[in-house]
Design brief:
about 180 residues, alpha+beta, Apoptosis, Tumor Necrosis Factor Receptor Associated Protein 2, Chain A, five-stranded antiparallel beta sheet, 3 helices, globular
Length: about 180
Amino acid sequence: DAESERQTSIYSPPFYSSPNGYKMRARLYLNGDGNARRTHMSLFFVLMRGKNDAILKFPFNYKVTFCLYDQTPAQQHIIDSFRPDIRSSSFQRPRSEMNIASGIPKFFPLTTIQQEGNPYVRDNTMFIKIMVDFSDIPKTLLPYALNLNPGLPTNIQQHMIKQETEKRAQQTTTQPTVLLQRNE
């Protein structure tokens, strides 16, 4: 349906960033959107009107990361992020059911996804994760965070990310300093 353009995009079911958080969903154009049409998969984030909006901060101003999972042991996931343009209506408090989608038009090349045996599609299924970064996770930590078992409760994942951040910070501060002296 995507190639014939009978169905240009699909939406994920709506979900919340946390029990008292933002309501959102993904919008995926399997055959691309706009200038990415017929060359890339386009992946977008959609902010929706939710039950908690009255107590949340708008405009929405948190980094959004998409991860297309490699379903093989190689785990060469495709990870890309964007920061919201807080002037865009996409990130203001929703006035209707959902805001205009915003995201990454050239998320993933179609040539790769259309290859037989590619690691991202198994049994006609892809897994895509959306991670809203409320705590400014360093870019170097994203692969670690996205490789955590998605079945773990969010608070456990956040705790593990915090521990890993502290561990890496400690490793960089305890690296031995090597002084080289030239003997004359």
